[in-house]
Amino acid sequence: MLFFIHKQTIKNLDKIKSDIDKYKDTFNNLPIEDLILYEKAIDSCIEGFSLFNNSIFTAIFSFALGLFSSDLINLDKFDNIEKDFVIAGSIALGVLVVLIFFFKAQNESYIFFKKVIQLCIEEKEEQKNKEIEKRS
Hints:
Elements: H1 2-28, H2 32-69, H3 80-135
Helix pairs in contact: 1-3, 2-3
């Protein structure tokens, strides 16, 4: 079992390295000013998704707290309309949980692209510094 996990981890790392190389080749063709703008845009996306995730989490927590604190769990007390409301609310709660995982995954992909862009910016700055040293 551990061997399989180790083998899968190495395979995933190789895929990540090849993805980084592929995207670095794409981003290296861009001027450094564009890369800096892309990095700022990705930072905004990451911040937006983080805020959105936090607001969804707050909504889930508030709804769950309201659900449990007002004895809505005991559905025998209510008529059919109120039961439907509780069931619909529970489904909405599940959808919000799924949204959190979706946006978390989306955020991770933006973080990956940000790291690749940062690598490209660092390489371009190193190239620029080497050219300046050669001229001196």
